[in-house]
């Protein structure tokens, strides 16, 4: 499969090639020709979303086989949390650095290298002989994510045609869809056949590598053509004053903490919660986890376009604070109501991240890779720390206590009131 660089011939140049050649990011070119920037590149968005699906599907297998690992290696909840922490911490530390570097020196084929790290980590996880080898494999998968997420987010923005929320949602729903399918595949393939069958999923990673090679070629051609445009007097948009940006970033950090600590409780321990409280089988618990993750995918897809239409701050309000009544009910729900409640929680809570990411990119124009890397890194980091902390609490106080405590986290959504109205500045 080959991607055409543009769907229409480029119009007469009106972007500032001087600023581009000086290192300004091509995805934020202020006055690029309509045929170049103002048209969505659907094939590229589809390819990057499918690659995200395959990447996160293989990575979610790690979380999905936790019951298998717990029995095979006789692990405690704390040790399970440490696996998640290792994977998430590696990704969170490296992602902002990768984004900052590629803002200055774009690397079209870095996505292929990142997926290669995931391939190595997956194979190592399938045959790890000891717990410490499992940790090393998880770290390798995290290193792959540190390259994949900020760079693929940049490609999605470049292919957005100015509809940044929609593009981020299409990109992210691929990942959420992969995360949802992973537990099902683990229940159907890995749990009956053993951990070694994980290696078959390397075929999915190889498919993603082939897709990303094509995306890299598209990125390279697009970059070369934009930098060849004649210069104009177009000015680069400036963001809000530094104090406002700093305050907003602190608020977004609180919201990321709230969202991803709660998500960590669901992705890492929801199956154990169902097996303990309602005596579900492993396969039945995995199916319930799939239902939750499917709701996350739907909410992610909806959040971006809604944010483009009504404003991202409103979506953040509704997503994080709006989910609180449902999380507060979950610890007391019966088996019949637990499934519907978790579906609603996944649907509402997941709509926030696209809005948060684009909101942050509008706060700091021209730093798309750094901001994407920072927020994907924060998301991974919070999820990893959350998994480790909640695992320790589960060992000490029980798994039901974890869900009671986490039910209050969405109340931190009240801090959304302190976010500035970035959309008004962008329109102005």
Structural class of the helix and strand makeup? mainly alpha
Strand content: under 5%
Question: What is the CATH third-level topology name?
Answer: Growth Hormone, Chain: A
- Count of discrete structural domains: 1
Major β-sheet annotation: none
Number of helices: 18
Helix content: over 70%
The unreliable regions are 4-37, 231-235
- Shape from CA axes? globular
Please write the CATH class name: Mainly Alpha
Helices and strands, in order, run as HHHHHHHHHHHHHHHHHH
> What is the name of the CATH superfamily?
MFS general substrate transporter like domains
Give the overall average pLDDT: 81
CATH architectural group: Up-down Bundle
Cα-based radius of gyration, to the nearest Å: 21 Å
């Amino acid at each position: 499969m080959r991607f055409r660089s543009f769907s229409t011939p480029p119009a007469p140049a009106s972007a500032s090639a001087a600023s581009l050649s000086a290192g300004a990011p091509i995805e934020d070119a202020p006055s690029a020709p309509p045929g170049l920037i103002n048209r969505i590149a659907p094939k590229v968005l589809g390819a990057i979303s499918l690659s995200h699906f395959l990447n996160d599907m293989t990575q979610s297998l790690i979380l999905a086989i936790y019951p298998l690992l717990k029995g095979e290696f006789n692990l405690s909840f704390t040790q399970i949390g440490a696996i998640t922490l290792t994977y998430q911490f590696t990704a969170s530390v490296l992602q902002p650095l990768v984004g900052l570097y590629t803002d200055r020196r774009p690397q079209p084929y870095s996505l292929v290298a990142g997926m290669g790290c995931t391939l190595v980590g997956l194979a190592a996880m399938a045959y790890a002989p000891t717990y410490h080898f499992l940790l090393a494999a998880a770290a390798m998968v995290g290193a792959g994510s540190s390259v994949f997420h900020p760079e693929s987010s940049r490609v999605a923005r470049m292919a957005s045609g100015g509809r940044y929320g929609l593009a981020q949602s299409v990109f992210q729903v691929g990942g959420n869809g992969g995360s949802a399918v992973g537990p099902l595949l683990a229940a159907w393939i890995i749990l009956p056949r053993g951990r070694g069958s994980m290696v078959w999923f390397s075929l999915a990673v190889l498919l993603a590598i082939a897709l990303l090679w094509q995306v890299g070629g598209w990125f390279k051609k697009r970059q070369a053509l934009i930098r060849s445009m004649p210069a104009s007097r177009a000015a680069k948009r400036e963001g809000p004053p530094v104090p406002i940006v700093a305050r907003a970033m602190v608020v977004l950090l609180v919201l990321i903490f709230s969202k991803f600590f709660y998500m960590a409780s669901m992705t890492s321990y929801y199956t154990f919660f169902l097996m303990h409280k309602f005596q579900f089988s492993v396969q039945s618990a995995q199916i319930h986890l799939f239902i939750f993750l499917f709701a996350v995918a739907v909410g992610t897809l909806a959040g971006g376009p809604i944010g483009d239409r009504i404003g991202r701050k409103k979506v953040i309000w509704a997503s994080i604070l709006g989910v609180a009544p449902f999380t507060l009910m979950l610890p007391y729900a019966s088996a019949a109501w637990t499934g519907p409640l978790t579906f609603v929680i996944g649907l509402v809570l997941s709509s926030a991240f696209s809005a948060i990411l684009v909101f942050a990119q509008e706060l700091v124009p021209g730093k798309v890779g750094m901001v994407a890397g920072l927020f994907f890194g924060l998301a991974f980091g919070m999820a990893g720390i959350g998994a480790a902390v909640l695992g320790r609490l589960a060992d000490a106080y029980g798994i039901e206590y974890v869900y009671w405590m986490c039910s209050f986290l969405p109340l931190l959504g009240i801090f959304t009131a302190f976010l500035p109205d970035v959309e008004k500045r962008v329109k102005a």
